[in-house]
Amino acid sequence: MSVTVEWKGLAKSYGAHSALTHVNGTIAGNKIIGLLGRNGSGKTTLLALIKGLLRPTSGQLLINGQAPFENRALAREICFVRDSRMTYGSFKVREALKLASASWPNWDHGYALHLAERFSLPLEKKVQSLSLGMESSLNAIIGLASRAPLTLMDETYNGMDAPSRYLFYEELLEDYMRSPRMLVLSTHLIEEVGRLFEEVVLVDQGTIVLHETTEQLLMMTYVVIGTAPDVERFTDSLQVLHTQVLGNMKSAVVFGELSKEQERLADLYHLDIQPVPLQDIIVHLTSRKEVPSS
């Protein structure tokens, strides 16, 4: 099952507070997508709307042409990994995995037990007694073993220690290669997991402000370094996201593809052009009052 998610003028409010406004766009196909943005930007609300846990205040959200709210058939094709302590708290881990198996038709119980062994998850311990790291591992296992055509992970692995997180990234990529599907990962750990993203959706102040392939986003952002007057001349008509000055030297992060003419000017002014890591791009974009259009 290939998934297409469409937003058409989507908005969600909680009383007087507007969590999402004027959300438009489409994500489609089997791919790993990074849902990025600052705390409070609206990412979790958007994921809850996709899962069908919330009704939109206005506009439409469609998954393969269907609205997910109160759609039981569609719910079985979507796994939204959240707080397992709330859902399975009084159950043992082994029982929680068995209960989870009834929620998704593509559930792979053998794979779930394999992951539990890899993460050293105590199967006979109650979920509510797990450490934060172990609970995060359980959340990750449910998300992967669900094999749901649309899997949503909201900061699922933040409680894990570094070795466990890297084990999760390894398993996620290997399982995605075995069973392609749409995986949407909301995270602040961009430096670690960004290499897995095929596309990036950036949410800022309650709306989607950017949707690009990761490759394109990296190509269209660069840093130029040189003497302050030369950098200022070079960037005079360009979209600059961030600048830094050290003595008579200056660096400027530029949003926009580097043209042949700009390459010539950089060479003429003896400027150094370097790539910008994905995490830095997201930080600079969300630190601006307005995100430049791509």
From TrEMBL:
The UniProt entry, under InterPro entries, shows: AAA+_ATPase, ABC_transporter-like_ATP-bd, P-loop_NTPase
Which controlled-vocabulary keywords does the entry list? ATP-binding, Nucleotide-binding
Protein name as catalogued = ABC-2 type transport system ATP-binding protein
One Pfam family here: ABC_tran
One annotated GO molecular function is:
ATP hydrolysis activity
- Residue ranges of every copy of the ABC transporter domain listed in the record: 5-230
Q: Which PANTHER family match?
A: ABC TRANSPORTER, ATP-BINDING PROTEIN (PTHR43158:SF5), SKFA PEPTIDE EXPORT ATP-BINDING PROTEIN SKFE (PTHR43158)
The domain of life for this entry's organism is: Bacteria
Give yes or no: UniProt keyword Nucleotide-binding: yes
Q: What is the lineage of its organism?
A: Bacteria, Bacillati, Bacillota, Bacilli, Bacillales
